[in-house]
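Section 4.2 – Deliverable D4.2 (structural model, holo form)

The reporting period included a commitment to supply a predicted holo structure for the target in complex with magnesium ion. Inputs used:
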Amino acid sequence: MASALSQFLQAVAFGLVEASVISVGAVGLTLSYGVTRFINFAYGEFLAYGAFLAFFLSGAGAGVVGLPVAAVVAVLLVGALGVAVSRVFFRPISDRGALPLLITSIGVAFILRYLLIAGASAEARQLPVPLMRPVEVAGVGLTPLELGVVAVSVVTMLAIHLLLQRTMLGKTMRATSGNRSLAEVAGIDTDAVIRKTWFISAAAGGLAGILYGVLFAPFRPTFGFGYLIVVFAATLLGGIGRPYGAMLGAVLIGLMISLGSTYLSASYDQAYAFIALVGVLLLRPEGIRGGEF
Amino acid sequence: MGDGDSKGRSAGPGIDAIRRYDHAILSARDIETGYGDLQVLFGVDLDVRSDEIVLVFGPNGAGKSTLMRALVGTLPLWAGTVEMNGDDLSGLEANEMVPRGIGYVPQTENVFPNLTVDENLDIGTIHAADPEARREAMFDLFPRLADRRDQEAATLSGGERQMLAMARALMPDPEVLLIDEPSAGLAPQLIERTFEYVDRVRESGTAVLMVEQNVKAALAVADRGYVLDVGENRFEGDADTLRDAERVRDLYLGK
Ligand SMILES: Nc1ncnc2c1ncn2[C@@H]1O[C@H](COP(=O)(O)OP(=O)(O)OP(=O)(O)O)[C@@H](O)[C@H]1O
Ligand SMILES: [Mg+2]
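Output (structure tokens):
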């Protein structure tokens, strides 16, 4: 009886750890949707680039800096990559509507992925993190690393919350999301706001990829595209374009994957997210229409 | 009649002449624009002088909102010029109009629905010299908004939303406020109130260019007006002249 309970609590704990990764990714995806109004399928590649840049910059690769520094640099580089990608591919066609942008983003995903494979090979990699023993509390064990992932995610969510509610940049992002043409005539340089949003969105993607790499080693250059389904499910569940919804969606998807893996079968973990995604589209189709933040 | 230099294209004074004014703050000359292949404006002239309330009216689809969009740069000009205090504004981005002293309240979707009242005003502070003084001034003008500071704009009533839209546009203390049908959809008592607000805006030193369908009520506060029809100015004149002119009455005011 006690062990059934602790098995359940353990599954919930793992679910919340995975939710931490999903949440960072989902908030990033939803922010860019909120201001640009199209679903960026190249977003998964930001995760992959984050993990691989962190890998090459840290001990496991070039060995120049430790993982925390490598992670920060990688996140900033992926942010810059997001700005560059939007500038080169998305901005020139930004007035053509959501569908051309979405299809372009699928093409961009392929380009980025094969560039990464060309540069880094398709080999599976691991971030230089130590193996750690779980800390047990009331029969539930998590490693300090897993707790660290949760902490980084919580801090990131808090930072994004403060950005959106307290800073002028955040308010102009929300204004642009709510009514872009009014934002423009209200004196907001919406091009600049969108550029900054791309940076933040891609950087969040890069960070999610690094957190993924910390938890789920080894990883291949293709992991981002696969994990995009999971991130996407959380984003839609919360209503795309809504950061707080994305956080909630991440918790639900994380729990679903973890409980499914524990009680059904561990071999279908991402399929649970996919089922959730289909369920959302059937039961809550307004999720894909989205809102503003 | 009138104190403007009579340089209209049609000879002689009176409502048929579109007078042009030399010392206007906002001047539009021969504006042409439209959407895609559809030309909507065919050479419109318009001036707003300081301390004036100028009314634009005319039938639905005449191009009144289009004229406003052309003035604030959300629609590119096909021909003609827009000047503010003698500076050519053509080719500027819409977001560059606010620092030049132009405020604009669109006809619809004129607040940020997902932002609170206070946050909508925050957006207005971007180009405001003294944000907190302006915020207080807005709450003096619209006390209703002060009671609803933390409410999301999406949940405001139509009248409150219109107040918020005006307040947001007035935050930077513009030299001229462009406002598109401020009384649309409001109850009769609120319609009069709206024009009182417009009058107070002028008293506080901001000139107003207003599109309105409630022409009689609007003419009560306006100094001058233009009649726009099928993308052209048909008449221009002082408020009294327009009110009394038979042809304007027959065609555009109803009996
Ligand atoms: N975004 C648009 N795309 C294409 N055509 C448009 C657009 N907006 C307006 N039009 C057309 O331009 C013409 C003028 O429209 P506009 O909105 O300027 O008229 P209006 O005088 O403001 O009318 P109302 O009194 O109904 O507000 C109309 O024929 C309208 O159908
Ligand atoms: Mg109109």
